[in-house]
Specification:
heterotrimer, A mainly alpha (258), B alpha/beta (246), C mainly alpha (275), A: 258 residues, mainly alpha, 9 helices, globular, B: 246 residues, alpha/beta, Rossmann fold, 6-stranded mixed beta sheet, 8 helices, 10 strands, 25% strand
């Protein structure tokens, strides 16, 4: 009896997940098709760029700063033991640029911008605004969704770049404050050990993350059902889906891009 | 029984209610009417203690309850029942769980609660629906469950926030029939906010017209359409021209 | 010229308003935390206290069991990635991969395991709590509770708070195990590191375990408080719920990172750099 229940549960979960995946893929295809003659509503695009980018800078900056500092703190015992202060810059920098930076910034972005986007689109769906657009012969995908997807991708890349720099700064500050390593040494360590490929690797990842966060958040936004409760559930699902996709993409991109 | 003395409510810089003075004697039935966003719902929530007045005093049965903490308000609230505008049924409880909630909180025995829930549901015409979930009910049914929950603990004062909003005319009449029967039997005080003036005056004795955050007019319900104040007359009759603003 | 001065003043007052808003929010958050602790006392510490039946177990199921697959998948993948990068770097810099497993475990127990698990939970659990409580607030169910003499903090937050602490602790331990296991698998398959060499607990000291446990406890406490706070502040209708859920995810994630930073730096400073 218990076994049956468990199998039914797993089965229905699997069906639900496949349904979502299918829906997301279809939306992705629709977005691509809407891009073929690239006619974007520039006003929507600019509005979204501003909303998603400018207002996220503070939280991303703070997160990045702490992240950089954390990497230094983690490297600290090695540095102390081996007396290799140049190690701190290399360890912190490498981790930040290739992995921790893009991932944490993407997660913060998914929370701040992705969830917000799902909530907005969800409210629009619940209040029948999307139907209203269709009644005016305006394609919601071209008018609403494509600008948001483009904005989110562009903005995540920009935020990752900014975040990377602030994280390195944070690493330098924490190294001085906690390990008493001079700024000059950290800077030299960065320059010597970090290559443009490391930086670009992180940027490519953020591009992929941006796309996946954008498409999943839009999908869950437009498939909302059931009023305020439905919107809450959609945001929940969007954030979870984004987190899982970020982790999966990171895995594949790490293997592919070395 | 209920006294508002020069009560005001501000949200930030915006004054939602100002200088409201009102007395509701025990057993009275008072209707609160007015244009949208005039402060009607805030007034009712204020009497329930859900919103604290930023000026003035609220006195219930001689005790000044202005700005009391939630814990000290509990004995006062125990004598008040409230029907919310959007029913506010707990969506994680069955109908029985919802209606019995006030009694369970009070520590009543389970069988006593079950019996009283059955009685109340029968009185509001929903006998046998104990096991249903709120999501399975229609709007009118949810309102009736809300009324059952608000009145199950035999409160001395019942507050109704838009009891018939969104209901068809027949259901509206049934609703007020129910309220009349309830209050005839219990003698409890009633304060009801409604946008449906014609139906409301079949239930209440006095009407308070809230306009631009003030208690603009108070008078008998039956003759409100011929009230001496032109703003009130225009509102009640639904006329397009006159001194009414907003 | 006056335009520039206006802009400067504008920015300063904006930053100032931000700061004041932040301080006020922090204070309210603290009050919610205090209120929740008081609620625990009210509900469990006194005789004859009334508890909503089964709420704690239900919350533990929602927070713990339902997050299981999510955590296993995400933590597993990130464990593999981390080890992959680490092995790469180690083999380039030092040439000898024997230390990777040992050092990695130290890092997992004292930081990565609890923190990454909590980051994942802050999205799933944080959004869930804010969405639930937010929709209740917006549909006036919270007001209805108050009319029945129930303190929303007691009824809604306390079970979630206790459940979250227990489950975050459990899931963090599980997360550590998964990360370590996934990492070992990757090291063996991609770099031919002998599992016996990798799986070596010799370098893990009590201080690492204590630090990891403290972090897991702090995260488990922070996530429901921040999310519940955002939920209780929801206003309006569906947009309010959306806003609350968004704020909860951002706030919880940020709380996790800040706590991690503070506790790590604190431990480093207390132990004189010997972590």
């Amino acid at each position: 009896m218990l076994g049956e229940n468990a199998i039914t549960n797993i089965g229905s979960r699997a069906v639900a997940v496949s349904r979502e995946l299918g829906g997301i893929t279809i939306l992705f295809a629709q977005i691509l098709r809407a891009l073929v003659p690239p006619r974007l509503d520039t006003r929507e695009l600019v509005k979204n760029l501003h909303k998603m980018g400018n207002r996220s800078v503070p939280i991303v900056a703070l997160t990045a700063f702490f992240t950089g500092g954390l990497m230094v703190v983690q490297a600290a015992p090695f540095v102390q033991r081996l007396q290799a202060t140049s190690l701190a810059g290399w360890a912190a920098g490498y981790a930040v640029l290739r992995e921790v930076g893009p991932i944490l910034i993407a997660l913060m972005f998914s929370g701040r911008v992705g969830a917000n986007n799902t909530a907005e689109l969800g409210t629009m769906t619940v209040t029948e605004q999307l139907d209203g657009l269709r009644a005016l012969a305006i394609d919601p995908i071209r008018y609403l969704i494509v600008p948001r997807v483009v904005s989110m991708m562009v903005m995540l890349v920009c935020l990752t770049v900014i975040g990377d720099l602030i994280a390195l700064l944070g690493a330098m500050l924490v190294a001085k404050a906690v390990l008493d390593i001079e700024f000059g040494i950290m800077y030299a360590s960065f320059v010597e050990n970090l290559a443009p490929e490391d930086f670009l690797h992180g940027v490519y990842k953020s591009l992929a993350f941006g796309l996946s966060i954008a498409v999943t958040s839009c999908y869950f936004g437009v498939t909302v059902r059931g009023g305020a409760v439905g919107v809450g559930r959609a945001v929940n699902a969007a954030v979870v889906a984004a987190a899982v996709s970020v982790m999966l993409l990171d895995f594949f991109l790490t293997y592919l891009n070395v | 029984m209920i006294e508002l003395r020069d009560v005001g409510v501000r949200f930030g810089a915006r004054a939602v209610l100002e200088g409201v003075t009102l007395t509701v004697p025990r057993g009275a039935r008072v209707g609160i009417i007015g244009p949208a966003a005039s402060g009607k719902s805030v007034l009712v929530k204020l009497i329930a203690g859900l919103v604290a007045p930023t000026s003035g005093r609220l006195v219930i049965d001689g005790a000044d309850v202005t700005g009391m903490s939630e814990e000290r308000l509990a004995p006062v609230r125990a004598r008040i029942g409230m029907l919310f505008q959007n029913y506010a049924l707990y969506d994680f409880l069955t109908v029985e769980g919802n209606v019995g909630f006030p009694l369970v909180r009070r520590g009543e025995a389970a069988d006593v609660v079950a019996q009283r829930v059955r009685d109340r549901l029968r009185a509001v015409g929903l006998a046998g629906s104990e096991a249903k979930m709120p999501s399975q009910l229609s709007g009118g049914m949810k309102k009736r469950v809300g009324i059952a929950r608000a009145t199950i603990a035999a409160p001395e004062l019942v507050l109704y926030d838009e009891p018939t909003a969104g209901l068809d005319p027949v259901t509206t009449s049934k609703m007020y029939d129910l309220l009349r029967a309830d209050h005839d039997r219990s003698g409890a005080t009633a304060i009801a906010v409604s946008s449906d003036v014609a139906a409301l005056v079949t239930f209440v004795d006095t009407v308070v017209f809230v306009y631009q955050g003030r208690a603009h007019y108070q008078g008998p319900a039956k003759t409100v359409a011929d009230a001496p104040d032109p703003v009130v007359r225009q509102f009640v009759r639904g006329a397009l021209d006159g001194p009414l603003v907003g | 010229m006056s335009f520039v001065i206006d802009r400067i003043f504008g920015t300063i007052s904006a930053v100032g308003a931000y700061a004041i808003g932040g301080v006020r929010a922090a204070l309210e958050l603290w009050m919610v935390f205090v209120g929740t602790i008081a609620g625990i006392w009210r509900m469990y510490g006194r005789r004859g206290a009334r508890r909503p039946a089964g709420a704690l177990v239900e919350q533990m199921h929602i927070i713990g069991n339902r997050s299981l697959l999510f955590i296993v998948v995400t933590i597993g993948f990130i464990g593999m990635v981390m080890i992959y990068q680490a092995c790469l770097q180690f083999s380039r810099a030092v040439g000898d991969l024997s230390q990777v497993g040992v050092q990695f475990l130290r890092l997992i127990v004292s930081d990565l395991g609890p923190t990454l698990t909590a980051m994942m939970l802050s999205t799933r659990v944080g959004a869930g709590i804010a969405a639930e409580i937010g929709s209740m607030k917006v549909t006036e169910q919270v007001d209805a509770l108050r009319m029945s003499g129930v303190l929303p903090v007691d009824y809604l937050l306390v079970p979630r708070f206790l459940a979250s602490i227990v489950m975050t602790l459990g899931l963090s331990i599980l997360g550590c195990a998964i990360m370590y296991g996934a990492g070992g698998l990757t090291a063996w398959l991609s770099f031919e590191v002998n599992p016996r060499v990798f799986f070596d607990v010799s370098m893990v000291r009590p201080r690492h375990l204590i630090l990891g446990l403290m972090k897991a406890l702090a995260y488990g406490a922070a996530i429901p408080i921040v999310s519940g706070f955002c939920g209780l502040r929801a206003r309006g209708s569906s947009e309010g719920v959306g806003w609350a859920t968004t704020a909860a995810v951002v706030g919880s994630s940020f709380a996790v990172i800040s706590i991690d930073f503070l506790l790590s730096v604190g431990a480093l400073w207390l132990l004189g750099g010997d972590l």
